[in-house]
Amino acid sequence: MNREAMPIHIDYMRTAASNVILIGESAGADWILIDAGMPGFAAAIAGKAAELFAGRAPLAIVLTHGHFDHVGSLPGLLRRWDVPVYAHKHELPFLTGKADYPASVLVGGSGLLSRIVPRHPHKGIDLGEQVLALPPDGSVPGLPEWRWIATPGHSKGHVSLFREDDRTLIAGDAILSVKPEAAFTVLAREEEVHGPPEPFTDDWNRAGESVQKLARLKPEALFCGHGLPMAGVALRDSLERFAANGLPCGSSSD
């Protein structure tokens, strides 16, 4: 996706293997961070935010889910910014030290994913009272034009964010714009819709239902947790084809 075609008030940053999304109007304006990326990127994320928003801290950090590659730099960011963190209520046990995610399991395959899966952390983190449940009415704190949508499957409390006005979708890992076996590498450069990585997905049937839900939104711009942004005809055609075929079991094995 050409950066000139991206909404100017949305930017993204890759943290090794996963993306963070920064949403705000202009330098010095209020803004929101979506997800916190891989471990070790707090300084880089804060630096990007300083460039875009004149050093202003975000109003909040909103998590699509709590997997390690989406919360890895959260402790470092919270040492810099004393801001609330929001997630779906079903993710809170994994963000308050009460539960761990299921261990990842690869069914078949002997390539890249077979090397990644055994090293994939599945322990929860403990943010204490700093993490709050997203409002039950679907509103997104700090983003009045947006709504959150429950898209479970990849995790129990996975959410996506959608803005109706320009049909912009932030999908987290509910759908990817890169093949699942390349999602955790620095080689991801294609722009085609795929399902979430199966070994790291709790409920494959619900993940498929979430794909269908997002396809019905007919997004015009897409930001994913892994892969490049997509927009326009390329997005519409790819998502339509993918949703029509459904989530094939075993699609993420290599």
Provide structural commentary:
- The protein is of the alpha/beta class and 254 residues long.
- Helix content is 23%, strand content 20%.
- The chain is built from seven helices and twelve strands.
- A six-stranded mixed beta sheet has the order 1-2-3-4-5-6, covered by helices on one side. Strands 7-8-9-10-11-12 form a six-stranded mixed beta sheet.
- α1 (42-53) crosses α3.
- The relative contact order is 0.15.
Overall mean pLDDT: 86
Structure annotation, total helices: 7
Shape: globular
In terms of per-residue confidence, which ranges show pLDDT below 50 for 5 or more consecutive residues?
1-8, 106-118, 250-254
Neighbour order of strands in the largest sheet = 1-2-3-4-5-6
Tell me the span between the first and last alpha carbons. 26 Å
Please provide the ordered H/E string of secondary-structure elements: EEEHEHHEHHEEEEEHEEH
Count every beta strand, where a strand is a DSSP E run of 2 or more residues: 12
- By oligomeric state, this entry counts as single chain
Structural class: alpha/beta
The profile of the biggest β sheet is:
6 strands, mixed
- Cα-atom radius of gyration: 17 Å
Which strand-content bin applies to the residues?
Answer: 15-25%
Helix content: 10-25%
